[in-house]
């Protein structure tokens, strides 16, 4: 994903922050690895801040970020309508936390209600079909602004990881 973002936007137009719906966190790890490799070969000078968004009913990565822990502890009694965010014991939590911290990023949580409202708003106002996971970054945006994890005037990439069209 990091290489695709770089290819599409180029070094000069990379976002200031990438807001990513985080279950296990491997997407953040992969983007950090890609940006690290691009920097190592001289194609990239700065990294976008990586921001994890989790459901408030299952947020082991965000909790570990807030506590300053080196790894996430398992979330007890997890719950979310977003199956991709329902990862109570992420196996790569150390790498995920390293990636977020190394980029100066952070994390926040969103409620089930906020996710549902964001999905409806994306569809009604922007014509974007998003899964609950994909709607979570949009739902988090107001909170991220209040928490100063993103700032007005910055280029922010809200990662939509899935379509809202149900599969049967």
State mean pLDDT (0 to 100 scale). 95
Q: At the third CATH level, what is the topology name?
A: Rossmann fold
So what's the CATH class?
A: Alpha Beta
The tally of structural domains comes to 1
Q: What is the CATH architecture annotation?
A: 3-Layer(aba) Sandwich
Distance between the terminal alpha carbons, to the nearest Å? 27 Å
* Helical amount: 40-55%
Pick out the low-confidence regions: none
**What is the overall number of helices?**
6
Q: Would you tell me the structural class of the helices and strands?
A: alpha/beta
Cα shape: globular
SSE series? HEHEHHEHHE
Largest sheet: 4 strands, parallel
Strand order of the largest sheet: 3-2-1-4
Number of strands: 4
Q: Give the strand content.
A: 5-15%
Radius of gyration: 15 Å
What would you say this structure looks like, in words?
This protein has 6 helices and 4 strands. It has 168 residues and is of the alpha/beta class. It has a 4-stranded parallel sheet with strand order 3-2-1-4, with helices on both faces.
Please give a quick description of this structure.
With 168 residues, the chain is an alpha/beta fold. The protein has helices at 2-9, 26-40, 60-67, 93-102, 112-126, 132-146; strands spanning 17-21, 49-55, 106-110, 156-158.
């Amino acid at each position: 994903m990091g290489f695709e973002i770089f290819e599409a936007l180029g070094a000069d137009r990379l976002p200031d922050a990438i807001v990513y719906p985080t279950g296990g966190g491997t997407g953040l790890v992969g983007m950090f690895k890609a940006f690290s490799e691009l920097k190592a070969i001289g194609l990239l000078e700065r990294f976008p801040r990586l921001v994890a968004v989790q459901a408030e009913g299952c947020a082991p990565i965000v909790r570990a970020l807030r506590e300053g822990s080196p790894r996430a502890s398992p979330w007890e009694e997890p719950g979310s309508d977003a199956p991709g965010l329902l990862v109570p014991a992420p196996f790569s939590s150390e790498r995920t936390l390293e990636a977020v911290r190394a980029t100066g990023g952070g994390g926040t949580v969103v409620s089930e209600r906020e996710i549902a409202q964001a999905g409806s708003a994306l569809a009604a106002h922007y014509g974007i079909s998003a899964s609950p996971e994909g709607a979570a970054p949009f739902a988090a945006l107001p909170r991220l602004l209040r928490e100063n994890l993103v700032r007005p005037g910055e280029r922010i990439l809200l990662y939509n990881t899935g379509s809202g069209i149900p599969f049967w």
